[in-house]
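User: Predict structure, ligand L-tyrosinamide.
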Amino acid sequence: MVTRKQIERDGGAVLLPEKSRVKPPPMFKVLLLNDDFTPMDFVVVVLEKFFGLSREQATMVMLNVHRDGKGVCGTYPRDVAATKVEQVEAFSRRHQHPLACVMEEN
Ligand code: TYC
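Assistant: Predicted complex:
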């Protein structure tokens, strides 16, 4: 908030914010990679559980990965992306599936 007193003290000048000198934080895509063994239903569950996708969105992303070899699940700051990769890989190994999840800087 700018008070009348502050404006008067500045001789009525309107002070604009300085140009920010900090870069926005780098963002990272989290991708799933296709393989021949992980069941389609399992990939859909992963996309719902860890990326908050609806059943319909998850099915579309899974089919894109199945067709194209890889696909983006979401974009996050570095630490969030790294946690998603760890969670997906741990969950997949626990269920004995080879599903691979990687992150890439945008
Ligand atoms: N290709 C797998 C199959 O036919 C399905 C699959 C989709 C696996 C996406 C991994 O990231 C993946 N069962």
